[in-house]
Specification:
The chain has about 220 residues and is of the alpha/beta class. The chain has one domain (about 1-215): 3-Layer(aba) Sandwich (Rossmann fold), CATH 3.40.50.150. Helix content is about 40%, strand content about 20%. It contains 8 helices and 7 strands. It has helices at about 1-25, 25-30, 40-45, 60-70, 85-95, 135-145, 165-175, 185-195; strands spanning about 50-55, 75-80, 100-105, 120-125, 145-155, 200-205, 210-215. β4, α6 (about 135-145) and β5 (about 145-155) form a beta-alpha-beta unit.
């Protein structure tokens, strides 16, 4: 089983690298037009100097950089399965002179020790669960990596239930070309996980279901 999981992870890593090898150069310029709610998610981190922030699926590092500008003094950490994206993130942070720890790896196997810490005060997952095959395993890993009193901040595509059916159909067909699949049951899955861990959950719908934001906290 472990061998199969490793092979699947390696296949997914190669797929992500293939997708982003060219797109990494235009990613931030294009995604701002349809990845809604990211900046509101960052603003909602409500983090203090000295606290640790991990972004799972950190991509180009865009969100981490905005987070430290809004909340100076954070200890920044980013994980992504695509080494192509991490190269972009590292170069970007180098130009900005901002310190961060980046790790290439599978989000379902994220361990604080890989970053030299015992846990994370804030964990952010922005439009990544819809691209991770084992997205529920990623959520489990995130909850396990959270420090007592910490919070997990998620934004991703919603079920689009309030939008016209034709729009929903076209959107999902277009997203599928980039190996993106909205997780319609994500709010329900999160609710169950939070109940099991005695955490509170706040969920906000964006654009009649186009996207959803969620915050799980103590």
């Amino acid at each position: 089983m472990k061998r199969e999981e490793t092979a699947a992870t390696a296949d997914h890593a190669r797929l992500m690298d293939r997708i982003y090898r060219g797109q990494k150069h235009i990613y931030d310029a294009t995604r701002k037009y349809y990845l809604f709610g990211r900046d509101r998610t960052i603003a909602g981190l409500d983090a203090r100097p000295g606290q640790s922030l991990l972004e799972l699926g950190c991509g180009t590092g865009r969100n981490l950089l905005l987070a430290t500008r809004r909340f100076p003094g954070l200890n920044l950490h980013g994980l992504d399965i695509s080494r192509e994206m991490l190269e972009t993130a590292k170069a970007r942070f180098g130009r900005e002179g901002v310190q961060a720890t980046f790790v290439a790896g599978d989000a379902t196997r994220c361990r604080p020790a890989d970053f030299g810490v015992e846990g994370f005060d804030r964990i952010m997952i922005s439009y990544a669960l819809s691209m991770i095959p084992d997205w529920k395993g990623t959520l489990d890993a995130a909850f396990d990596a959270l420090t007592p009193g910490g919070s997990i901040h998620i934004v991703d595509f919603g079920d689009q239930s309030g939008l016209p059916r034709w729009f929903r159909t076209l959107l999902r067909a277009w997203l599928a070309q980039f190996h993106v699949a909205p997780r319609d049951d994500m709010p329900a899955v999160l609710a169950g996980m939070c109940r099991a861990r005695n955490l509170s959950l706040a969920v906000e719908t964006i654009g009649r279901g186009y996207a959803v934001r969620a915050v799980a906290s103590a």
